[in-house]
């Protein structure tokens, strides 16, 4: 009975978007569309907040089991596919993040035209995929939701985007689909490697329900496939190039959702599937990916320094910050992994804020070229102040979420006692300076100074719907940055079993 | 001491209030809110100091370290990042310095910033800065210090860029932030190493029975093996401190930071934030003295030599600047270097009564205290002058003494103080520093004395340039300079009184290396020398600069024109940085990386897409549409299969 | 007694001639004739196998007759199509039929 209750409880994150889809389909005018979106996304946000409290209560009552609210129903028995749900501290944090972004994304695309209804249909479908991905623990279901989240992106960018939108949509979709292909091989590899009896990741990890340990040789084949598969979405160097073009062409809310949540699917998947299920391979091959992510971190930051399009700057900055997520995961200490999840959360909120603001500025000035923008502070003070706050949060100012995430990552990474990890950590530390360079460069160029473009002088400041989105995100970023203890502890309860699962074998290979 | 929490919270709330609601407040209300909050903070700080220093000393003759608050803010594995308030002599002393100068600046800004656009924002940022700086000095652990360290950095960025429509201010704010951030990166790495090897970030910890445990003292007892990397960490932290405290070669941001409003320069870039590095070194002093050796060089030795060089360099540059705020900025750099040197010469743990090896600790803190007061006074005075003549250039000034008597007298007091003339406060603190330097090595002692002489020279060059010399009749013709309003002169008078009196504070009773009371006694050999040299320099400056025409200065500048130009251009340090950042980092690293990304990596994926497309395009020729061709291939296939089966 | 091989050789020759004609002739009519040739070679095989390897039934003959009937119908359809092609393209040459080209 509890089984079904849990399934229903967690599945409400998928049902609500389904109801929203129905509502949108039936909606007759733009106000109804907006009504459905606001109501639905508010319900999702409330659900996520409720889940956080429920989770904290349940976790206090039951500190040992890995996943809480677990439950499953058979779906396709012949292939052992179940619709299995369950959450831990990590997924709760991710669900909260997604709910915030969907909520603010709705307001950020308040005035979007044309085809508003269709736009929100795809948008909701995408968010359904995201929510579904985070609540399920069955590899097949996860993969399915993953694909549901990816496909709408093609249309959202291709139809409602700007600039070279067809090219960007095609590139993004093809690269992510390429990643999916690897991923599917990896997932089936894990499935059969573990005995072919269950798709449930908890069972596979704990060798229960007919799963057995995956042979290390096999792991070394499937681990890179799975990691790269998810890594493409997590902007792993050198598979990150979809990100600048894709983000630059996507409409505002899609950029927000994509950089804010979808890229987190990559990190989450790497951690939850690739590393968790194949610990030996993660130990053995981790260093290769560690180097790649280390490159991502510095490389993305340096690339961002010379870009002239606001969205490109932010996309490269995302490459750098998401690189840090994967970097921290591969560092494989409890602290660094906690930091990675914090960074996902923090980067999701910050980058969503950034893309929202860029979208709002672009919607007014019709250019994102920093050489053509200047002196916006006098013209649109609210947006400019928001931009500065986003920038400062992005460069890791204390009091915002970026600081706590980065510090946790660095301290955690430094727990590794060998020179290789140390050098990489110090290299990653350099990125905080470069981040400051590109953020301040943009702030100085577009916001400060005197406006020389006569057309820009007539522009107006943020409207109420934009203010809602921006304020929500700023409050979240600052809230996380000012009171990190509870989030950090919640995430730690999720990270600890995973890392402990991977680490017992650490001594065997740690000699690198 | 529970009320100490308010010292941090009140400015924070004032910042939030002014930042969010400032738009709807009038200038007067905003200023009053900011100033009254700061007034309360100042009163609380003085109460704290009074309560702290009047409490009975412990059995070993030291003031007990208090830990009114300390809670876990962020756990990090075995380590944890706490926030709290720690009261010990130097942090209490800093509370007084910060709150006093900040209050003066708040009051002064009423007049200086009168009618400026963004007045509310200005007060909000001042509150943010004050909060951060106070949080920095009461930090219970190195990470909290780093956190507030970053916050003072950003408030400095925001305040330097206050006039955000001026390109110079934008560039200066960016430069200040990035240079200090660069130094902070080393600080952070230092913290990481320190945390890993020491196992805690805390300076002190709350013990089981409410006692305060001196964690740092325990670390000093580590054996050599565990402590192998602590010196490296300390060295990296010093780089962070050097960035914030503008030590050569990371000093380049400070002169440019003068683009900010002058009261801000007084508060942040003269009195408080720039001494954060000195404070950091003082905080880590027990560790530096216990094990500060990297490869044969002690970290403290590095501190001394960096300090000595910076003091000399900045003094030399200050002699040739024509912008009065720049002169003051370089003088600040030079004076901070004095403090650094004083800390660096603390080679021995304090033993016995005379503090011979660690007199510099007390001297440095004393100088920090007196310097904060007289340098704030100088900057605020400079603000009055700039307010009156609307220019920073000395050429626009001259002969102002009859127009601005109060500014003139207070400025003179500050100049005498910084030159080291008794009975003004600078004399006492500088004398202690020189004594400590002579005890360390005669060379350093004489060298620092010479720099003290240069200080007296350039300060009086500035003084005569502003208040004596040629009056700029042309400029004054349509705008007669006038004395600043009372709200601006009151802080000047207050600070001047402090400057006169501070020298007689028995500072050693409050702050000393081992915490025990120490009576300052002047070493008249050192003191006499420095007085004589200072007086000589002042006379020299008087001789050169007091008259309306300055033939000696002009001919000197002409004779050593190369040197003068080099000094005027600050030895081209900015150009070197410009070259490194633009020509090397941007053009040689970022641009190629961006190109590589667009053309190689992205090109590769585009090539894949193009390849797939081209392949499809080419094999579509097979679908010719000619049925007979299909049939031919079909039959050939059958034939091939048949043969295959027959032969196999 | 005529041996089965002779019959099969004739059928194979007919088949090859059909294939050759199908591939090489330009006129659709000739192609149709070639197809008929191939069909007939198959019919011949049916009849031959029924006759020579007696399985005790007449399915082979039946199939031959059935196939001849089908072929007649098919020729009718094919000629109808050809007339239509002729109307559209003014000719029934095979190389004009390139609408299926990719």
Secondary structure layout plus pairing:
The complex is a heterotrimer of chains A (512), B (648) and C (102).
Chain A: H1 2-26, H2 30-61, E1 68-76, E2 81-87, H3 89-108, H4 116-135, H5 139-160, H6 165-193, H7 201-206, H8 216-233, H9 242-249, H10 252-277, H11 279-305, H12 310-331, H13 334-365, H14 376-379, H15 381-394, H16 401-413, H17 419-447, H18 454-457, H19 464-482, H20 485-502, H21 506-509
Antiparallel strand pairs in A: 1-2
Helix pairs in contact in A: 1-2, 1-4, 2-3, 3-4, 3-10, 3-13, 3-19, 3-20, 4-5, 4-10, 5-6, 5-10, 6-8, 6-9, 8-10, 8-11, 9-12, 10-12, 10-13, 10-20, 11-12, 11-17, 12-13, 12-16, 12-17, 13-15, 13-16, 13-19, 13-20, 15-17, 15-19, 16-19
Chain B: H1 4-21, H2 27-54, E1 66-76, E2 79-87, H3 89-112, H4 119-137, H5 142-160, H6 167-198, E3 205-206, E4 212-213, H7 215-220, H8 230-244, H9 253-256, H10 262-271, H11 276-283, H12 285-290, E5 293-294, E6 297-298, H13 299-318, H14 324-344, H15 359-389, H16 405-419, H17 425-440, H18 442-467, H19 473-478, H20 486-501, H21 507-510, H22 524-545, H23 551-559, H24 561-568, H25 573-619, H26 627-647
Helix pairs in contact in B: 1-2, 1-4, 2-3, 2-4, 3-4, 3-10, 3-15, 3-20, 4-5, 5-6, 6-8, 8-11, 10-15, 13-14, 13-18, 14-15, 14-17, 14-18, 15-16, 15-17, 15-20, 16-18, 16-20, 17-18, 17-22, 18-22, 23-24
Chain C: H1 4-24, H2 28-52, H3 59-89
Helix pairs in contact in C: 1-2, 2-3
How would you describe this structure to a colleague?
The complex is a heterotrimer of chains A (512), B (648) and C (102). Chain A has 512 residues and is mainly α. Chain A is built from 21 helices and 2 strands. Chain A has a two-stranded antiparallel sheet. Chain B has 648 residues and is mainly alpha-helical. Chain B has helices at 4-21, 27-54, 89-112, 119-137, 142-160, 167-198, 215-220, 230-244, 253-256, 262-271, 276-283, 285-290, 299-318, 324-344, 359-389, 405-419, 425-440, 442-467, 473-478, 486-501, 507-510, 524-545, 551-559, 561-568, 573-619, 627-647, and strands spanning 66-76, 79-87, 205-206, 212-213, 293-294, 297-298. Chain B has a two-stranded antiparallel sheet with strand order 1-2. In chain B, strands 3-4 form a two-stranded antiparallel ribbon. In chain B, β5 (293-294) and β6 form a beta hairpin. The mean pLDDT of chain B is 83. Chain C has a single domain, classed as Orthogonal Bundle (Helix Hairpins). Helix content of chain C is 75%, strand content 0%. Chain C is elongated, with a radius of gyration of 17 Å.
């Amino acid at each position: 009975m509890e089984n079904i209750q849990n399934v229903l409880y967690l599945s409400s994150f998928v049902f609500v978007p389904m109801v929203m889809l129905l509502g949108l389909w039936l909606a007759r005018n733009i106000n109804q569309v907006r009504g459905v979106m606001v109501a639905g996304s508010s319900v999702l946000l409330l659900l996520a907040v409720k889940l956080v409290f429920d989770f904290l209560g349940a976790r206090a009552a039951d500190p040992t089991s890995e996943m809480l609210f677990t439950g499953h129903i058979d779906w396709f028995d012949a292939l052992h596919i179940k619709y299995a749900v369950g959450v831990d501290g990590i997924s709760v944090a991710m669900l909260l993040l997604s709910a915030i972004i969907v909520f603010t994304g709705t307001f950020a695309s308040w005035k979007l035209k044309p085809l508003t209804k269709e736009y929100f249909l795809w948008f909701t479908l995408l968010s359904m995929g995201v929510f579904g991905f985070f609540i399920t623990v069955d590899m097949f279901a996860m993969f399915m939701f993953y694909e549901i989240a990816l496909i709408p992106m093609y249309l959202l960018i291709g139809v409602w985007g700007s600039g070279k939108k067809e090219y960007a949509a095609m590139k993004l979709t093809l690269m992510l689909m390429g990643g999916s292909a690897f991923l599917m091989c990896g997932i089936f590899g894990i499935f059969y490697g573990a005995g072919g009896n269950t798709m449930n990741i908890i069972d596979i990890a704990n060798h229960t329900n007919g799963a057995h340990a995956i042979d290390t040789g096999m792991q070394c084949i499937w681990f890179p496939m799975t990691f790269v598969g998810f890594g493409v979405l997590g902007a792993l160097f050198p598979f990150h190039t979809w990100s600048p073009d894709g983000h630059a062409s996507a409409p505002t809310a899609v950029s927000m959702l994509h950089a804010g949540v979808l890229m987190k699917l990559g990190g989450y998947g790497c951690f939850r599937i690739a590393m968790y299920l194949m610990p030996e391979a993660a130990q053995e091959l981790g260093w290769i990916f560690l180097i790649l992510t280390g490159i991502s971190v510095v490389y993305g930051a340096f690339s961002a320094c010379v870009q002239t399009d606001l969205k490109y700057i932010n996309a490269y900055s995302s490459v750098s910050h998401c690189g840090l997520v994967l970097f921290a995961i591969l560092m494989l200490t409890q602290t660094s992994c906690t930091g990675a999840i914090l960074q996902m959360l923090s980067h999701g909120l910050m980058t969503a804020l950034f893309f929202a603001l860029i979208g709002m500025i672009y919607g007014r000035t019709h250019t994102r070229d920093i050489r053509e923008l200047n002196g916006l502070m006098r013209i649109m003070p609210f947006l400019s102040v928001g931009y500065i706050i986003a920038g400062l949060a992005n460069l890791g100012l204390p009091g915002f979420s970026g600081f706590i995430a980065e510090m946790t990552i660095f301290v955690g990474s430094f727990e590794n006692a060998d020179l290789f990890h140390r050098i990489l950590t110090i290299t990653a530390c350099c990125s905080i300076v470069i981040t400051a360079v590109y953020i301040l460069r943009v702030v100085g160029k577009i916001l400060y100074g005197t406006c020389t473009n006569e057309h820009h002088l007539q522009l107006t400041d943020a409207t109420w719907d934009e203010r809602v989105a921006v304020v929500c995100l700023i409050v979240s970023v600052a809230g996380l940055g000012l009171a990190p203890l509870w989030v950090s502890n919640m995430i730690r309860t999720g990270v600890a079993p995973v890392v402990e699962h991977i680490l017992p074998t650490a001594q065997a290979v740690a000699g690198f | 001491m529970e009320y100490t929490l308010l010292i941090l919270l009140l400015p924070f709330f004032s910042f939030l209030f002014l930042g969010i609601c400032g738009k709807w407040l009038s200038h007067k209300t905003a200023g009053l809110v900011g100033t009254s909050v700061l007034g309360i903070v100042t009163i609380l700080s003085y109460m704290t100091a009074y309560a702290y220093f009047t409490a009975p000393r412990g059995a070993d003759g030291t003031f007990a370290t208090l830990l009114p608050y300390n809670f876990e803010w962020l756990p990090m594995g075995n380590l944890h990042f706490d926030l709290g308030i720690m009261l010990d002599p130097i942090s209490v002393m800093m509370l007084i310095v910060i709150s006093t100068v900040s209050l003066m600046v708040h009051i002064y800004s009423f007049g200086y910033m009168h009618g400026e656009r963004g007045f509310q924002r200005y007060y909000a940022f001042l509150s943010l800065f004050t909060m951060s700086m106070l949080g920095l000095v009461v930090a219970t652990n190195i990470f909290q210090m780093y956190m507030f360290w970053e916050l003072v950095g950003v408030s400095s960025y925001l305040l330097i860029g206050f006039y955000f429509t001026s390109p110079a201010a934008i560039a200066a704010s960016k430069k200040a932030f990035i240079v200090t951030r660069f130094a902070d990166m080393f600080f952070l790495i230092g913290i990481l190493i320190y945390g890993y090897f020491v196992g805690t970030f805390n300076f002190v910890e709350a013990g089981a029975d409410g006692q305060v445990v001196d964690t740092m003292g325990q670390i000093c007892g580590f054996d050599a093996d565990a402590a192998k990397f602590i010196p490296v960490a300390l060295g990296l932290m010093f780089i962070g401190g050097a960035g914030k405290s503008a030590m050569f070669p990371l000093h380049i941001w400070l002169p440019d930071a003068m683009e900010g409003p002058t009261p801000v320069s007084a508060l942040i870039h003269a009195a408080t934030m720039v001494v954060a590095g000195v404070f950091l070194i003082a905080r880590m002093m027990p560790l530096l003295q216990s094990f500060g050796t990297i490869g044969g060089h002690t970290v403290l030795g590095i501190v001394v030599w960096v300090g000595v060089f910076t003091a000399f360099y900045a003094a030399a540059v200050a002699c040739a600047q024509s912008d009065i705020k720049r002169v003051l900025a370089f003088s600040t750099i030079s004076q901070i270097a004095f403090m650094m040197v004083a800390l660096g010469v603390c080679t021995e743990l304090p033993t016995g009564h005379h503090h011979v090896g660690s007199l510099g600790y007390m001297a440095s803190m004393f100088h920090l205290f007196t310097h904060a007061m007289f340098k704030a006074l100088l900057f605020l005075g400079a603000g009055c002058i700039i307010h009156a003549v609307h220019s920073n250039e000395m050429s626009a000034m001259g002969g102002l003494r009859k127009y601005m008597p109060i500014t003139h007298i207070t400025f003179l007091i500050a100049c005498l103080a910084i030159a080291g003339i008794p009975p003004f406060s600078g004399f006492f603190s500088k004398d202690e520093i020189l004594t400590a330097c002579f005890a360390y090595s005669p060379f350093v002692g004489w060298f620092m004395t010479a720099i003290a002489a240069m200080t007296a020279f350039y300060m009086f060059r500035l003084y005569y340039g502003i208040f004596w010399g040629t009056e700029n009749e042309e400029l004054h013709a349509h705008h007669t300079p006038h004395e600043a309003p009372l709200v601006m002169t009151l802080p000047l008078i207050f600070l001047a009184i402090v400057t006169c009196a501070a020298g007689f504070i028995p500072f050693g009773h409050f702050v000393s290396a081992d915490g025990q009371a120490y009576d300052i006694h002047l070493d008249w050999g050192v003191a006499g020398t420095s007085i004589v040299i200072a007086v000589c320099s002042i006379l020299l400056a008087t001789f050169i600069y007091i008259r309306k025409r300055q033939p000696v200065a002009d001919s000197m500048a002409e004779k050593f024109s190369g040197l003068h130009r080099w000094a005027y251009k600050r030895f081209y340090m900015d150009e070197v940085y410009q070259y490194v950042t633009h020509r090397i980092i941007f053009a040689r690293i970022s641009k190629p990386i961006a190109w590589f990304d667009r053309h190689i990596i992205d090109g590769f994926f585009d090539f894949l897409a193009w390849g797939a497309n081209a392949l499809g395009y080419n094999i579509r020729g097979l679908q010719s549409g000619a049925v007979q061709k299909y049939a031919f291939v079909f039959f050939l296939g059958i034939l091939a299969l048949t043969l295959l089966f027959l032969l196999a | 007694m005529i041996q089965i091989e002779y019959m099969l050789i004739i059928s194979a020759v007919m088949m090859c001639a059909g294939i050759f004609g199908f591939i090489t002739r330009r006129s659709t009519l000739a192609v149709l004739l070639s197809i008929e040739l191939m069909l007939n070679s198959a019919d011949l095989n049916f009849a031959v196998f029924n006759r020579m390897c007696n399985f005790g039934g007449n399915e082979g003959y039946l199939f031959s007759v059935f196939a001849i009937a089908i072929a007649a119908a098919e020729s009718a359809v094919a000629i109808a199509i050809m007339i239509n092609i002729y109307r559209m393209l003014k000719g029934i040459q095979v190389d004009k039929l390139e609408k299926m080209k990719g």
